[in-house]
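hey so u asked for the seq, here:
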Amino acid sequence: MKLIGFINALIAFIGIIQVSAEIINTNEYITELFSVNIVETEGKKYTVNGNTCTVDMIFFQGTASGHYFNGDITCRDCTNVIKTYKDGRIEFKARYSLVGKDFNNSNTNIFIEDNLLGYDENKQPITKPTIITNSNNLSFLQTADIRGIIEEINGNKIIRYMWNENNKNDVPYPVAYIPDETKDYSKEVFVFNIEVGGEGYYDVLGANEIQAVSIGFTCTSNTSQFQGKGLDNFVDTRFQFPGQPQTLSARYILDGVDNEGNPSRVYVENIGVDFFDRVSTEPIIITDNPKWAWMEKAPLHGNTNWTNGLHIELWTINDPSLWENQQPEPQPEPQQEPKQEPKPDDQCSSKIIAQGYKCCSSICKQPYVDENGEWGVEDGKWCGCIENKNSCPSTITNKGYSCCSTCSKVRYVDEDGKWGVENHQWCGIPTMCKE
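ran it, structure tokens below
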């Protein structure tokens, strides 16, 4: 079946948003500049079901028509990323380029980054676009007060870009976000190998030397923690505004396996600035791997490394107590059996001990793994997971469930093993636990 509309998934969630979203008034936006007919590219929608939100990356095509501009969407940076958060919030940011003719029949390139603002009284999504164009006739679009109104007409999604001509003030350019560099980002999270190419290089140089640049790339990961590759060709989008450093924003999804062979998908939104002598980013990570769920709220930092090719290195701070989503210590249930402590001869990785860390005193529920071994967290500090611990059956963990942190009461038994409950969630009873 032909899929139409790059925000189909978004429209399905409008009912959730209406509870808290303000109604966006568009009465002053009465001059239509042009409209864009959006068609989702069949087979190019990728989803990551994370801990805090679900991410949909949707590639699309389309055409533009109107008094001020007529043209087509290029197939370079033409993606929309929709984030549906567990708390009901929805965000989307679409990026695409147009090639065609302006109202004076001059060759014209336009780059658009469209951000969801909310909904109007008719429950239509309203966007605020950032527009950059090389057309002198359309240079006013870069600072004009414009809204996008998304409508459904005859089954198609159409974005109508409307201009508030009565607002004579220039809309300010987006301000570059400078990533935090005050913390000690010394704990490696991921390393991605980047191959520049993909959809190639494309740029739009607008008035006042404002510039939008799209740099195509492919990506892989080849570390002990994660073996994976990008699901498609992706784009690093860069903006240059007067008096600001060059900003960058690369969005990509890798699919692969973790160190235990579990299928894992990772969405990365690497946002930052390029000072030309160095790159500094503050990435967003969404992943369906429950072991890595902490990454979605942990403070993260990114940089580039050009040793033997281009690599993106992502880091976090070596202090889990500062993570926003640090999980509380498991609370014992009523009448719960005593926890079985590890035997004295159990040892964690010698590489971890050599760094001055202690072995964990109990089973690691969701260990973090790097080249030094398996890490856990106790009392807000890193510790080494016991190497020869008895874990719960893989038939349970392969289904996405964690092992119980204690020898809790057996609540259910099936062909996969013995099941317990912790924090109102099913978990696998460790095999070391006695009957």
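Confidence is low (pLDDT under 50) at residues 1-21, 325-346. The longest strand covers residues 185-205.
lmk if thats what u needed
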